[in-house]
Amino acid sequence: MADHYEVLGVSRDASQEEIKKAYRRLARELHPDVNPGDDAAERFKLVTHAYDVLSDPEQRRRYDMGGDDSPFGGANGFGGFSDIFETFFGAAGGTRAARPRSRRERGQDALVRITLELKDVVFGVHRDIEVDTAVLCETCQGSCCQPGTGPVTCDICHGAGYVQRQVRSLLGNVVTSQPCTVCQGYGTTIPYPCVTCQGQGRVRARRTVSIDIPAGVETGLRLQLPGSGEVGPGGGPNGDLYIEVTVAPDEVFSRDGDDLLATLEVSMPDAILGTTTTIESLDGPVDLELRPGVQSGDVITVRGRGITPLRGTQRGDLRIGVHVVTPTRVDGRSRALIEEFAKKTKPPAPRLAHFQQGLFAKLRDRFRNG
After folding, report:
1. How many angstroms separate the CA atoms of 119 and 291, rounded?
2. pLDDT tens readout for residues 97-144
3. Distance between CA 222 and CA 214 in Å, rounded?
4. Closest to 102 measured CA to CA, from 213, 187, 9, 204
5. What distance lies between CA 52 and its chain's CA centroid?
6. Is position 88 within any domain?
7. Residues 24 and 110 in one domain
8. Which residue in 172, 175, 158 sits closest to 95, CA to CA?
9. Among 10, 84, 202, 356, which residue's Cβ finds the most Cβ atoms within 10 Å?
10. Residue 318 included in any domain
11. Is residue 86 part of a domain?
């Protein structure tokens, strides 16, 4: 059996607060609603069992003494004759220290997926999200009973939640404890269940959850809203709500970390003579100045017009790669002017250079080296 301290990743002298923090962290990571893998489900069971043992001082004491949380835990693997006697025959007075189940249970976590536009990522965005989930029953307020009524003590187990039976064996009459089949282990029954929620203390409904999504999020990121998940049975505490983000591709801009990338198409005359132009960024117009003789693959950097990082305030940059567009068709007069220009400038003859997969490969290298 796996060591409970190793399962939770804490030392054997860890405090109760450290154990609780370790369990919460692992539970958020391994919960089936968040991590549906089979391996995660098995680890979640181990983590939950380890926490159940180590969070109870008496169970933890027995486990530390014997290294086992079985009914025979204790020094040298046994808790002494009295523990064995209680296991088979019950504690003094014929009953064991068992408790009835609580109708109040923690609600399940919920996962909602949303799609954002790239411009939402620049500064963050506020969203109102519709969630179909379990909410507190307004009729009974989680009591599970019709208004004016309440649970009554079970006539079979008398509120204990379990019943004892004697079974003959080689050791004599063995007393065993089992959950009461009448009250299902709760110790009470509900003679008049709430007609709205059918005695569950909760109903299904759509509700609106408001969330401020921070700047700098990216596809696959999950945001946690504690206590915004489903309300538990019997009006138990809410689970958590997880928001999984997908950022839709933009027609013009792409993302590189906290920087934004784009391509500016420039006519050949503007590339030769230089020009000024205004472009629309994701948060307003930007004036650009192209120097005379700008080349395809040159990168113009506009500081502070990128994305605000998830943890920080210094925005990234907007980097614009230049693409000089060569005309594919020219009339006779234009051709003559170009030929005259070529004679006067005497451009160098075509030459071989390092192979590039088109402009975008060239821009990619410029961006990386930028």
Report:
1. 29
2. 468 889 999 999 999 999 999 999 998 999 999 999 999 999 999 999
3. 12
4. 187
5. 24
6. no
7. no
8. 175
9. 202
10. yes
11. no
